[in-house]
Amino acid sequence: MVTSSAPGKVYLFGEHAVVYGEPAVPCAIERRVHVTATEIDEGLRIHANDLQLDGFTVEYSGDGESHPDVDVAESLVEAGMGYVNEAVAQARDAADAPDAGFEISVEGDIPLGAGLGSSAALVVAAIDAATRELGVELPASGIADRAYQVEHEVQDGQASRADTFCSAMGGAVRVEGDDCRRLDGIDTLPFVIGYDGGAGDTGALVAGVRDLREEYDFAADTVATIGDIVREGEAVLGTGDYERLGELMDFNHGLLSALGVSSRSLDSMVWAARDADAHGAKLTGAGGGGCIVALDETDDALTALKYTPGCEDVFRAELDTDGVRQE
Ligand SMILES: Nc1ncnc2c1ncn2[C@@H]1O[C@H](COP(=O)(O)OP(=O)(O)OP(=O)(O)O)[C@@H](O)[C@H]1O
Ligand SMILES: C[C@@](O)(CCO)CC(=O)[O-]
Ligand SMILES: [Mg+2]
Question: Is residue 138 part of an annotated ligand binding site?
Answer without folding.
Answer: no
